[in-house]
Amino acid sequence: MARKPELGKWLLYRFFARNASARKHLPTTRKYSKKSLASMLQAYGAVYLKPAAGSRGRGVMKVWNDRQGRVIVQHTVRRPIAFATLDKANVHIRRSQGGNVYIVQQAVRLLQVKGRPMDVRVMMQRDRPGGKWLYSGMVAKIAGPSSIVTNVALSHGTVMSVDRALRQAGWTKEQIARTKSRLVQLAHAWAKHFDTYQPYRELGFDVAIDVEGGIWLLEENTGPSHRLFAKNIDGLADYRRIQYRWGRYEQARRRNGPRQCSTPSCGPLPDARKAVTTRQSIS
Question: Which residues lie within the region annotated Disordered (predicted)?
């Protein structure tokens, strides 16, 4: 059976908004236009603009109003640019789009580690075609200096255990354990919802934790990077588990006969594959 096309950020937002367990964890998102940007800025004070088909944090902009009433636009790791009016900011944004479709999204007040925003990657896998979803690990991604994105390669950020990150943010052991358990529970529900579109062998969910402990689903990756987990400064246990389950899936797939592709890219080695990001990676 032919694979369905990969969904971009906008269609994925609409797809997950139909799921009760995901809907309340989604930041408000609209297609970008002058009107939607103005209304979202008025509602939330700060927003992210992201290419609908973008990946790895590339092309992301953050837009907000400063105390002088100016509109500030910052691209990924670049310095912010101030505009006197929203119309002038929109001209700059249009030029930066390069003809690509963008979404505008509510900016979540992300939890910070030593003054830098963080989010969490939760990895879900199958160890055989048609098998049940298995939780394989999670890591915290800490943004690099002056970056609005947590993508490690782009921002020169840090990957560490979620426990370490939340401890450095001042959380107790009980708070950490409760939040990690909830993240795993939600990731199972979200992975099962993804199956209603088409099956995948692995999924990576990028999740924000806000300053009040709220959980926000930022991005769904259908070809998630394994190497991200190899960069964890707190050890390789999750990375080895991920690699092991990838190998188990490959063995089962070969035993089943004809090649079955259940991820956007089915190369023989997971770390040689190019990760496909189907939504966002905000700061």
Answer: 253-283
